[in-house]
Amino acid sequence: MRVIDHWIGGTRATGTGTRLGDVYDPALGEVAAQVRLASAADLDAAVATARAAFAEWGEASIAKRQQVLFAFREKLNARKDELAAIITAEHGKVLSDAAGEIQRGLEVVEFACGMPHLAKGGYSENASTGVDVYSLKQPLGVVGIISPFNFPAMVPMWFFPIALAAGNCVVLKPSEKDPSAAIWLAELLTQSGLPDGVFNVVHGDKEAVDALLVHPDVASISFVGSTPIAQYVYETGTRHGKRVQALGGAKNHMLVLPDADLDLVADSAVNAGFGSAGERCMAISVVVAVDSIADELIGKIKDRMGKLVTGDGRRSCDMGPLITREHRDKVAGYVEIAAADGAEIVVDGRDVVADGAADGFWLGPTLLDRVPTSSRAYTEEIFGPVLSVVRVSGYEDGVALINAGPYGNGTAIFTNDGGAARRFQREVEVGMVGINVPIPVPVAYYSFGGWKASLFGDAKAYGPAGADFFTREKAITSRWLDPSHGGLNLGFPQNV
Ligand code: NAD
Question: Residues in domain Aldehyde dehydrogenase (predicted)?
Answer without folding.
Answer: 21-476
